[in-house]
Amino acid sequence: MHTDLLQHIQFKMGDFSKGQRAIAAYMTDHYDKAAFMTASKLGATVGVSESTVVRFASEIGYEGYPELQHAMQEMIRNKLTAVQRMEVTTEQIGSGDVLEKVLNSDIEKIRRTLEKTSKKDFASAVDAIIGAKTIYIMGGRSAAALAGFLNFYFNLIFPNVRMVSTSSASEVFEQILRIGEGDVLIAISFPRYSKRTVRASNYASKSGAKVIAVTDSEASPLAANADHLLLARSDMASFVDSLVAPLSLINALIIAVGISKKEEISQTFTKLENIWDTYHVYEKNDVTLNEESQMD
Predict the structure, then answer these.
(1) Mean of the per-residue pLDDT values for the chain?
(2) Of 153, 212, 257, 280, which is most buried with the most CB atoms under 10 A?
(3) Residue from 236, 215, 249 nearest 106 by CA
(4) Same structural domain for residues 34 and 47?
């Protein structure tokens, strides 16, 4: 709603009651904690009633406290340091049943990703990939795991895939130097966003290539240069990035592309299976080994 929520709160400070000023001061000084507090807990922390917190949300232009809380979480997505994220994780999850809480949180992210991702953008991204002269894939920091996964399968499907290493800024631009019309850059980044990925997507867009952004929000810096925006939730404020929903989205992208190129891929995988068998790429399971030993 507001481009800078904290500035807006400061601007409205003179209109607040004493209790609302206490809320505003806490939110300004401790936004990393306030963003994940219920209205009741925030009120108790600053010494006001829950209803005062709800009225505060309305006073600054939100329909209710949940909308304000969501705005706070969106605002801090790229601001929290690793230490702050660790503190939030401890507060949210505690030392209880970590397995259940984390898995349930990831399930919720996949559900929200399904609701938010545009099927039209997804379909057009698939068409752009299939029609590309060269496909560039880039993901820095923790997103490198996602980029590597996508690169592995796309290299089995396409002869024209290039994985962009993000080890240094100069190397990035050297690798995408010739990117242009007819090419596609799949740029993957989640909070905290990689500057190199954002800058590379900007360069690719200016060079005439299509940019497919796999990110978390329309407010992501990758969105500005994206021809096709694929959104996946990754909002667990932990020191560990949750990549479950983004990986699920990328998995869907691989499968959709595979279905569109079914005949060609069938031939490729038939050849690969022969190579894998000939050179013993995969370990055979016990059942197969037993059957072969009985035949010998």
Answers:
(1) 86
(2) 212
(3) 236
(4) yes
Q: Does residue 225 sit within a domain?
A: yes
CB 251 within 8 A of CB 230: no
Can you tell me the distance from the alpha carbon of 36 to that of 259, in angstroms, rounded to the nearest whole number? 41
The domain in which residue 33 lies consists of 5-76
Cα–chain center distance at 54: 31
The DSSP call for residue 223 is G
pLDDT band, very low/low/confident/very high, at 249 (cuts 50, 70, 90): very high
CA dist 201 and 207 (Å) reads: 10
Residue with tokens 């990925």: 197
On whether the CB atoms of residues 125 and 241 are closer than 8 A, the answer is no
In a domain, 91, yes or no: no
Residues 75-100 as b/e (b if ≥16 CB within 10 A, e otherwise) read bbbeebeeebbebbbeeebeeeeeee
pTM: 0.71
Structure-derived torsion over alpha carbons of residues 45, 48, 53, 58, reported in degrees to the nearest 10 = -150
- Give the span between the Cα atoms of 57 and 35, in whole angstroms: 13
Q: Work out how many domains the chain is built from and give that number.
A: 3
> What pLDDT is stored for residue 3 in this prediction?
47
In a domain? residue 89: no
With 60 as the cut, is the pLDDT of residue 1 above it?
no
Do 253 and 270 have their domain in common? no
Least confident of 1-15, 139-153, 195-209, 253-267: 1-15
Q: Could you tell me how far CA 216 lies from the centroid of its own chain?
A: 4
**Which amino acid is residue 64, in one-letter code?**
G
SS3 content of the chain, % helix, strand, coil (to 5): 60, 10, 30
Residue that the structure tokens 């979480």 belong to: 73
Residue for token digits 């995988």? Answer: 269
**pLDDT tens for residues 77-114?**
656 666 666 666 666 666 667 788 788 888 988 998 99
